[in-house]
Amino acid sequence: MTPSGVRLVTERGVPGDLPIWTHPEWEERFPWLAQGVTSGGAGTAPFDLGLFGATPVGEALARWRRLREGTGFAAIAHSRQVHENRILVHERRPAAGLLVAEGYDGHLTAAPGLLLTASVADCVPVSVIDAETRAVAVVHAGWRGVVGQIMEGAIGMLLAEGARTAASIWVHCGPAICGDCYEVGPEVHKAVYAGREPPAGPTPIDLRAALAERAVSAGVAPAQVSTSTHCTRCGTGGFFSHRGGSPSRQMAFVGIRDPG
Ligand SMILES: [Zn+2]
Known about the structure:
Strand content: 25-35%
Bound molecules: zinc ion
CATH class: Alpha Beta
Order of helices and strands: EEEHEHEEEEEEEHHEEHEHEE
């Protein structure tokens, strides 16, 4: 169950030919922040940003460039993800262009001008921001990432400087497969909800609700935690769904706008 006080948010499509959706409340509250997610778009070719599948890499790279330029960022970071919990810290903005790392499921930075991305197509993209220090992170959380506490890892890293509380932390769980569509075996329920009695057979699980509960347990105020209403599998947002048979990938992104 989603903890009480956690906000349900519907990302809005941004007008224009770049298929991106943004968090309307964060957009208003944090003008220094860029945060959102891409979708398949309305073009004849889907806006597939997957770099590690069957998509011709030249086509994907052209879309990455559109994403980078369309959001106004000089540099953009991504990684081949491995369903683990390592987070790459970008101490400074890299050279302009696309940086592709290996083996990280999350990124974190306080450097303006660098857009961080996480690839998803049913798994949950989680954006974590520190509104006080203006540092941001995005992580990819499938059930293994949830169990591996990758989101809690990002929160901990954002708070590491000084013994600060989570009072300035905001968390958003973006478009992902919903709690009706994502059926998994009892072993997944057992891993995600350790200590609770798992169901007897395959049963849907709501990973965003589990993440919201974990964010609140980590000290984030429920009013500063939000989960998207979009489902990649049964929704109408045009998002790619792995369970729905799509090999394509959308990107959740978060970054600090460069004032200069
Ligand atoms: Zn659904």
